[in-house]
C-alpha cells in the first residue's frame, strides 16, 4: 500500500496540471533559486517547478513562458517556446561562441525595448566582488544568429543580454543571482514582462517648468505664475498644485496671488495613476524694503533727475516706479518769474531739432495768444541760455498789444558763437507777461546741444602791413587761422588775384583740434606788378585742408605809379633844370681822376720792363755756368 501511495505522489510531481504562468525548470524542485522566485512573486505571476527528469513528459505549451537557470540541464526546448535563458550553455542557437568577463561594466544599446525600461546607459550588473570571488558575466560572441543586442560589454560585439522573436526569447548572461544589483533585478523582471507581452507602464516626465529658479521672491501685491510641461507615453496624466501641502489648483499652470507676506512651498504633483513626479519651489512674499531698487525694476534718480511716478522706499533708498526724467533747469539768472497762467498761451514752435552746429543761426518761431477776457499789453523776452554755466548768452525783447483771443508770432534769431563751449547744455527760454501783471504770465523753454564740426577751419584775421601801395611794391600780409573742428588738420594758406597775377601759398602747417594748439599765424609777401594801374583790388585769401577750403576777401588800394605824371598847364613856365650844372661838375672831377690814373699806369709798366730784363740776365749767367762745368 505504501509503495502505491509513493508512486502516485511521484507521478503527480511529474505531470503539470496547475496551468501556472511560468514553467521554471530545475534539477531539484526543493531548491529553486530564491532570487528568481522572489522577483516572480513581486511581479504577481505564478510559477511551476518542473523537475528536469520530467522534461520529456511535460507539455510546455501549458505555460506562458519558460525559465531556465544556471544549471546543467539538457534537452530543454528553449527555441520552441518563449523562454528566459539565464544559462550560457544554451548559446548555440544565438551565436557561434560565448565568453565571460570579470569586468563589472555593462552598457545599454537599445533604449526603446521595454527590457531596458528604467536602466541607465551605463551600470554594474553585480553589486561587488565578495572576497576573492568575482562573479563572471557571460556574453555571446563570434557570429550572431538573429540575436538582437540589448545589453553589451565595452565591446559592442559582446552581448550580455540579447533577444529573439518568433517566439520571444531572452538570453541573460548575468547568471550569478547572489550578486545582482537592483538594475539586474529590474532587467530580469522587465524580461519576464516582455516575454509575457505585457505593456510596461512608463512613468510621466516633466519636460519643462517655470520659473526655472527654485527660490522665488516677489513683492507683496504682485502675483507669480507657475507652470509645468509634462508628458507620458502611455498614460493620461494629472497635475495638482499644492500650497504648503494644501490643494490649490489643477492643470498645467497656477497663479499665486501674493496678497500676504510670508514664506510658501509651491508643489506641482504630476501623476499617471501609478507614478508621481514632484516639482517644488520656495516662494517668499516680501515688502518693498526687502528689495533693492533694481530688483523692483525701479529707477534711482540722480541729482539732476526727478521722479514723475510713484516713489517707494527700497532697501537701498528711494526708488522711482518709472524712468527718471531730466530735472528742469532752474534758470537762476532769469528774474521776475511767476506761476504759469492758463489765460496765456505760449508755444515754442521752432526750433524743433535737438542740436545745432557752431556758427549756425537759430531760427525760432514763438506763438503768443491772449486768452484773457480783455486786451493786454505784452512784453516778451527770449533768452539764449547756457544751462551748465547758468548764464545768459543773448537776449531778445519785443512787445505787443493783443486783444482778447488774438495771437501773434515772433521770429527771434540767435547766432551761435564760434568759441562757445560745445560741452555745455543750452536752452531757448521764453517768458511773456501781460500788463506787467503776474496773473497773466507764462513761460516755456526748449533744450538743445551744440556740436562742433569735424572739419571747420576759420580765417580769423588778415592784416596788410603797408598803408601806401604802388606798382612794383612788395606787400606783406599777416594771416591768422584757427581750427574750430574736432580733428587735427594739415592746412595751406593761399593768396590769389587774377588781375594782378598773384598766386602764392604758404608751406603746409598743422592745426591741432580746437582747444589745443589750434591757431597759426602765416606771413606771406606779394609783389605788385610794374604795370599795375591805380585802383581798388580784392585779394582771395584761402585756407585749404582735407579737400576743402574757406575763403575771405581782403581789399587793397593801389596808388598811382611815379611815371604816371599829370599834365602841367601852359601858363606856368618851367625853371632851368639844375641837373645840367651837376653834370658838368661831375665831368670835371672825372677828368682830374683820369690824369692821376694815367701816372700810376706808367710807373707800373716801367717796373714790369725792368723785372723782365733782370730775369733774362739771370738765365744767361746760369747757362754760362753750366757750360763751363761740363767742359
Please write out the topology.
Blueprint (H helix, E strand, L loop, with lengths): L1 H13 L7 E5 L7 H10 L3 E5 L13 E4 L14 E3 L9 E7 L4 E3 L13 E2 L13 E8 L3 E5 L6 E6 L4 E4 L9 H14 L9 E6 L4 E5 L4 E8 L6 E6 L2 E5 L2 E4 L5 E10 L4 E11 L18 E2 L4 E4 L2 E4 L4 E2 L17 E7 L4 E3 L3 E3 L1 E6 L5 E11 L4 E12 L4 E4 L2 E3 L10 E9 L2 E15 L5 E8 L9 E10 L5 E9 L4 E4 L3 E3 L7 E9 L7 E11 L2 E11 L20 H52 L1
Parallel strand pairs: 1-2, 1-3, 3-4, 4-11, 13-19, 25-33
Antiparallel strand pairs: 5-8, 6-7, 6-9, 9-10, 10-11, 12-14, 14-17, 15-16, 15-18, 18-19, 20-23, 21-22, 24-27, 26-31, 27-30, 28-29, 28-32, 32-33, 34-35, 35-39, 36-37, 36-38, 36-40, 40-41
Overview of this structure, please?
It contains four helices and 41 strands. It is mostly beta strands. The chain has four domains: 194 residues, Class I glutamine amidotransferase (GATase) domain (Rossmann fold); 82 residues, Immunoglobulins (Immunoglobulin-like); 108 residues, Sandwich (Immunoglobulin-like); 102 residues, Immunoglobulins (Immunoglobulin-like).
Amino acid at each position: 500500500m505504501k509503495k502505491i501511495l509513493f508512486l502516485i505522489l511521484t507521478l503527480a510531481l511529474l505531470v503539470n496540471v496547475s496551468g501556472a504562468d511560468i514553467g521554471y525548470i530545475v534539477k531539484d524542485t526543493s531548491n529553486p533559486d530564491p532570487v528568481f522566485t522572489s522577483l516572480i512573486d513581486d511581479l504577481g505571476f505564478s510559477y511551476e517547478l518542473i523537475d528536469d527528469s520530467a522534461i520529456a513528459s511535460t507539455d510546455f505549451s501549458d505555460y506562458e513562458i519558460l525559465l531556465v537557470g544556471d544549471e546543467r540541464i539538457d534537452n530543454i526546448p528553449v527555441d520552441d517556446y518563449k523562454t528566459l535563458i539565464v544559462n550560457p550553455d544554451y548559446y548555440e542557437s544565438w551565436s557561434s561562441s560565448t565568453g565571460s568577463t570579470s569586468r563589472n561594466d555593462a552598457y545599454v544599446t537599445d533604449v526603446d525595448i521595454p527590457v531596458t525600461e528604467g536602466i541607465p546607459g551605463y551600470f554594474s550588473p553585480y553589486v561587488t566582488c565578495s572576497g576573492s570571488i568575482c562573479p563572471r558575466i557571460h556574453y555571446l560572441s563570434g557570429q550572431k544568429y538573429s540575436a538582437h543586442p540589448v545589453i553589451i560589454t565595452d565591446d559592442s560585439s559582446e552581448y550580455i543580454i540579447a533577444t529573439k522573436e518568433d517566439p520571444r526569447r531572452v538570453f541573460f548572461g548575468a547568471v550569478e543571482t547572489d550578486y545582482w544589483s537592483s538594475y539586474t533585478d529590474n532587467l530580469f523582471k522587465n524580461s519576464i514582462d516582455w516575454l509575457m507581452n505585457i505593456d510596461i507602464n512608463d512613468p510621466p516626465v516633466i519636460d519643462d517648468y517655470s520659473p526655472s529658479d527654485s527660490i522665488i521672491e516677489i513683492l507683496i501685491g504682485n502675483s507669480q505664475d507657475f507652470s509645468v510641461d509634462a508628458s507620458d507615453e502611455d498614460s493620461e496624466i494629472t497635475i495638482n498644485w499644492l500650497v504648503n501641502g494644501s490643494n490649490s489648483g489643477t492643470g498645467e499652470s497656477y497663479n499665486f496671488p501674493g496678497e500676504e507676506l510670508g514664506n510658501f512651498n509651491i508643489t506641482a504633483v504630476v501623476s499617471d495613476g501609478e507614478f508621481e513626479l514632484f516639482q517644488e519651489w520656495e516662494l517668499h512674499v516680501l515688502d518693498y524694503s526687502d528689495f533693492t531698487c533694481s530688483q523692483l525694476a525701479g529707477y534711482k534718480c540722480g541729482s539732476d533727475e526727478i521722479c514723475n511716478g510713484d516713489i517707494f522706499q527700497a532697501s537701498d533708498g528711494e526708488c522711482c516706479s518709472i524712468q527718471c526724467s531730466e530735472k528742469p533747469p532752474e534758470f537762476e539768472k532769469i528774474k521776475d518769474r511767476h506761476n504759469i497762467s492758463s489765460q496765456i498761451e505760449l508755444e515754442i514752435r521752432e526750433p524743433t531739432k535737438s542740436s545745432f552746429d557752431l556758427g549756425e543761426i537759430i531760427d525760432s518761431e514763438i506763438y503768443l495768444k491772449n486768452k484773457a477776457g480783455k486786451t493786454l499789453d505784452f512784453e516778451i523776452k527770449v533768452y539764449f541760455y547756457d544751462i551748465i554755466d547758468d548764464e545768459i548768452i543773448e537776449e531778445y525783447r519785443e512787445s505787443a498789444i493783443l486783444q482778447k483771443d488774438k495771437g501773434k508770432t515772433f521770429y527771434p534769431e540767435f547766432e551761435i558763437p564760434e568759441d562757445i563751449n560745445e560741452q555745455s547744455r543750452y536752452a531757448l527760454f521764453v517768458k511773456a507777461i501781460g500788463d506787467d501783471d503776474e496773473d497773466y504770465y507764462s513761460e516755456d523753454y526748449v533744450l538743445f546741444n551744440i556740436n562742433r564740426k569735424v572739419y571747420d577751419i576759420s580765417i580769423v584775421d588778415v592784416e596788410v602791413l603797408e598803408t601806401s601801395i604802388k606798382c612794383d611794391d612788395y606787400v606783406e600780409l599777416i594771416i591768422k587761422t584757427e581750427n574750430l573742428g574736432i580733428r587735427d588738420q594739415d592746412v595751406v594758406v593761399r593768396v590769389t588775384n587774377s588781375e594782378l597775377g598773384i598766386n602764392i601759398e604758404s608751406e603746409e602747417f598743422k592745426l591741432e583740434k580746437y582747444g589745443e594748439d589750434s591757431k597759426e599765424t602765416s606771413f606771406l609777401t606779394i609783389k605788385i606788378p610794374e604795370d599795375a594801374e591805380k585802383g581798388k583790388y580784392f585779394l582771395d585769401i584761402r585756407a585749404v585742408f582735407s579737400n576743402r577750403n574757406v575763403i575771405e576777401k581782403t581789399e587793397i588800394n593801389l596808388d598811382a605809379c611815379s611815371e604816371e605824371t599829370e599834365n602841367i598847364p601852359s601858363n606856368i613856365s618851367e625853371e632851368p633844370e639844375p641837373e645840367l650844372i651837376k653834370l658838368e661838375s661831375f665831368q670835371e672831377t672825372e677828368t682830374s681822376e683820369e690824369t692821376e690814373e694815367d701816372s700810376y699806369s706808367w710807373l707800373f709798366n716801367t717796373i714790369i720792363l725792368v723785372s723782365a730784363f733782370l730775369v733774362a740776365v739771370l738765365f744767361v749767367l746760369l747757362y754760362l755756368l753750366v757750360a763751363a762745368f761740363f767742359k
